[in-house]
Amino acid sequence: MAEEIKPELLEFLQAGGLPYRILVVESLYYLPELRQMFPQAEIFAVAAEEEAIEPYGNCQVDFRVVDYLSERLPFEREFFDYIISDLTLEAVANPQDIAAGFSMYLKQTGSFLTSFRNIRHWSILEEMMEGHFYHLVTRLYAKTEFERLLYASYYKNVRVRPQVRRADTDIVERLVAAGFENIHEDLETEFWLVQADRSMPEMALLKSMYTKEQRKELSDYLHRIEYDVDAENQCRLFWAFYEQISLFPDYTANFIRQAVFHPESFYRRLMKYSRRELDEILAMLECTRENATSQDELRWIDKIEQELQGMK
After folding, report:
1. Buried b / exposed e across 131-159, counting CB within 10 Å, b at 16+?
2. 80: pLDDT confidence band, cut at 50, 70 and 90?
3. What is the model's pLDDT at position 144?
4. For residue 3, what pLDDT is reported?
5. Strand 21-25 to strand 61-65: parallel, antiparallel, or no bridges (unpaired)?
6. 115 SS3 class
7. How far apart are CA 202 and CA 263, in angstroms?
8. Spatial separation of the C-alpha atoms in residues 301 and 295, rounded to whole Å
9. Residue 195: what pLDDT?
10. 9-203 maps to which CATH number?
């Protein structure tokens, strides 16, 4: 028979004093540990039944009565750092709508922590072999299916951890012999725990260091320079902005790697109109070299650096 999931989603988080905004959907049993882990956090919770919050009255939680299956969440967009909810997408008719809807309430650096019962667990396959299926009112997933669902719902990075329950019999061996793959002990993983991030890790770091408005303004300058739109004036404005918000070469170089489609022509145009900032550009190029992922990238960096040295 199937077992209850162990509440282990908080293992994705590192306790600390940051003033996060965290939303717990239905899985209110996480609230006491969350408050202990994050004493400075603003913690919110929603559940379909008002009495669900009664055991957690001392957790300093902003509680709302909301049925997430049929109602919009009463919060602003991009409000939360984390949304936490076990088995959220099992009882829904429209899992992609729910997953994508949750993503709208997460900051660009935010994450959705959830879980799902693995349809490939030996216990479910054994029941099906015996002619039974006890999950008619729930939606079960395989790992790759769930990952595809989240990527299609605007999450950029998905990580999973197994919650294993091993068999007391030789059922797993029989399943493997029958042709079932057991990569990463998938047949013995009863639940998969999931962290779905709105941004790739490197982009999340970039987005955490400056405001959304500052990143937008920086991106605008870079793209105008890249596509030679009033490039001389845009270079001047870019360097003034660089000084104003205390940008630095490592951050700027990584931002350029993520935002600019034609970096070679971008750097060439930036150098043309930035004779007094050539040392700063060289530092950006050295950072880009350290993070290069191909020989083609290294070749254009070498070429641009040689041109830059000739301009000094």
Report:
1. eeeeeeeeebbebeebbebbeebbbbbbe
2. very high
3. 93
4. 58
5. unpaired
6. strand
7. 18
8. 10
9. 96
10. 3.40.50.150
Q: Which tokens hold the place of 264?
A: 């070679």
Q: Where are the domains of the chain?
A: 9-203, 210-311
**Which residue spans within 85-215 are E strands per DSSP?**
106-117, 157-164, 189-197
Q: What is the mean pLDDT of the chain?
A: 91
How many residues comprise the chain?
A: 312
By three-state DSSP, how is residue 195 classified?
Answer: strand
Query: Is the pTM higher than 0.85?
Result: no
**Residue that the structure tokens 């939606």 belong to:** 139
In angstroms, the CA 304 to CA 284 distance is 11
For strands 42-47 and 21-25, give the pairing.
parallel
For the chain, how big is the Rg over CA atoms in Å? Answer: 25
Indicate the pLDDT class of residue 138, thresholds 50, 70 and 90. confident
Query: CA-CA distance, 150 to 273, in Å (whole number)?
Result: 43
Tell me the per-residue pLDDT of 5-44, one tens digit each, with 9 for 90 and over: 889 999 999 999 989 999 999 999 999 999 999 999 999 9
Q: How confident is the model at residue 1 (pLDDT cuts 50, 70, 90)?
A: very low
What 50-57 contacts at long range (C-beta under 8 Å, 24+ apart), as own/partner pairs, is 52/26, 52/28, 53/28, 55/28, 56/28, 56/31, 56/32
What is the Cα–Cα distance from 68 to 90, expressed in whole angstroms? 13
Task: Tell how far CA 200 is from the center of its chain.
Answer: 6
